UniProtKB/TrEMBL annotation:
UniProt xrefs under Pfam families: DUF2188 (PF09954)
Lineage top rank: taxon: Bacteria
Residue segments, region Disordered: 45-79
InterPro entries xrefs: DUF2188
Protein name per UniProt: DUF2188 domain-containing protein
Compositional bias per record (Basic and acidic residues), positions renumbered to this chain: 58-79
Length: 79
């Protein structure tokens, strides 16, 4: 199972959280960014509905799969 880390960082004249190479919006304070990361982290772990999905791979081939709504990553916030 994947593990996502929400890291609090200075960004664009304020503060943001970063997951991998992706930044959140910029917040005016460290505390605001931390709270937003905690909320996003908690929401990421909520199970959804199992549903069919379709996607196209890099070679242009389409795939049909059943996405298990219970398959959620582990998350943590790193301050």
């Amino acid at each position: 199972m994947a593990k996502l880390t929400y890291k609090i960082v200075e960004h664009d004249g304020g503060w943001a959280y970063k997951v991998g190479s992706t930044f959140s919006e910029t917040f005016p304070t460290h505390q605001d960014a931390l709270r937003a990361a905690e909320i996003a982290s908690a929401e990421q772990q909520v199970a959804g509905a199992t549903d069919g999905i379709q996607y196209e791979d890099a070679d242009g081939k389409w795939h049909d799969e059943l996405a298990d709504g219970r398959d959620r990553p582990q998350t943590e916030v790193s301050d």
